[in-house]
C-alpha cells in the first residue's frame, strides 16, 4: 500500500495527470468513485509524507495483532469511511489516506479495550499516547485545509468495525493451583501452615503407630560391621 501510494503520486506529478479529480466529491455520481480511489491520492509531498509513517505503523500493528480480520478492516474501512465522507462532506475533493489512518487508530484502540487482554490494552494506550492528538481534527473549522469529515468518518467506521468483528477471548495461562477460580486454600498443604491471622505455624506432630513403625524399619535391615583400627593414633589428613 505504501509503494502504491508513492507510485501513484510519482506518476501524477511526473505526467500532470490531475488525479485529485478522482477523489471523493460528496453527493455526486462522478465523485462516488473517490470512495475507492481517495486513499491512494495525495495533494503534495508533505501530504503523502505525513500519512506514510502512521499508515505503515498502524497497518503493521493491525496485521500483527489482528491478523484474522486485518484484511476485512482495511477493505471495509476504506469503503465505509469513504461512503460516510461522500454523504456528509463539503463540496470539495476529499483525498488522502488520513481517513484510513483514523479507521486504524479507532479500531485498534476500541478493540484493545474491549478484549481486556493486557497486551492489546497496552497497544491501545500506546496508540492513544502517540496519535491521541488526532482527535482534534475530527471537528470542523480546526483546519479548513483538511477533511475533518473524512477523519470523523474514519473514527466512526473503526469503532463500528471493532464492535462487529469478534476476536478470540484471551485468557491468562494458569500456571499455579491458586490461580484456579475454584481453589480452596483450606485444602492446600502450604496454606495449612498459616493460622487465621496469617501467622506461620507448625503442624501438630503425629506419633506413628508402634506396629507401623516396626513394620517400616523391618523392611530396611541394617548390618553394622565394626572394624578395629590397627593403630589408635589418628593422623590428620592433608
UniProtKB/TrEMBL annotation:
Compartments reported by the entry: Membrane
Transmembrane helix among keywords: yes
GO biological process, one term: proteolysis
Listed GO MF terms: serine-type endopeptidase activity
Transmembrane segments: 48-66, 73-89, 95-113, 120-139, 145-165
Coiled coil ranges: none
UniProt keyword Mitochondrion, yes or no: no
Signal sequence range: none
Peptidase S54 rhomboid domain location: 35-164
Top-level taxonomic group: Bacteria
Pfam family, one: Rhomboid
Any single Gene Ontology cellular-component annotation: membrane
Alphabetical UniProt keywords: Hydrolase, Membrane, Protease, Transmembrane, Transmembrane helix
Membrane topology: Multi-pass membrane protein
Coarse class of the protein's main subcellular location: membrane
PANTHER family reported in the protein's UniProt record: RHOMBOID PROTEASE, SLR1461 PROTEIN
Protein name per the record: Rhomboid family intramembrane serine protease
Species, as recorded: Flavobacterium alvei
Amino acid at each position: 500500500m505504501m509503494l502504491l501510494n508513492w507510485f501513484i503520486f510519482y506518476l501524477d506529478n511526473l505526467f500532470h495527470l490531475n488525479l485529485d479529480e478522482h477523489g471523493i466529491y460528496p453527493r455526486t455520481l462522478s465523485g462516488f468513485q473517490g470512495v475507492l480511489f481517495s486513499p491512494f491520492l495525495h495533494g503534495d509531498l508533505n501530504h503523502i509524507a505525513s500519512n506514510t509513517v502512521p499508515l505503515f505503523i498502524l497497518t503493521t500493528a493491525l496485521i500483527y495483532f489482528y491478523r484474522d480480520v486485518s484484511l476485512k478492516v482495511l477493505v471495509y474501512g476504506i469503503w465505509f469511511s469513504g461512503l460516510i465522507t461522500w454523504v456528509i462532506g463539503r463540496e470539495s475533493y476529499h483525498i488522502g489516506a488520513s481517513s484510513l489512518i483514523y479507521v486504524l487508530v479507532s479500531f485498534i484502540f476500541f478493540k484493545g479495550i474491549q478484549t481486556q487482554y493486557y497486551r492489546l490494552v497496552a497497544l491501545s494506550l500506546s496508540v492513544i499516547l502517540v496519535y491521541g492528538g488526532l482527535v482534534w481534527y475530527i471537528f470542523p473549522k480546526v483546519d479548513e485545509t483538511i477533511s475533518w469529515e473524512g477523519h470523523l468518518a474514519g473514527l466512526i467506521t473503526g469503532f463500528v468495525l471493532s464492535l462487529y468483528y469478534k476476536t478470540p477471548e484471551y485468557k491468562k495461562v494458569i500456571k499455579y493451583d491458586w490461580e484456579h477460580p475454584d481453589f480452596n486454600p483450606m485444602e492446600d498443604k502450604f496454606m495449612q501452615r498459616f493460622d487465621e491471622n496469617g501467622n506461620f505455624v507448625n503442624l501438630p506432630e503425629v506419633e506413628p503407630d508402634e506396629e507401623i513403625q516396626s513394620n517400616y524399619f523391618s523392611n530396611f535391615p541394617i548390618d553394622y560391621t565394626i572394624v578395629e583400627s590397627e593403630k589408635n593414633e589418628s593422623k590428620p589428613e592433608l
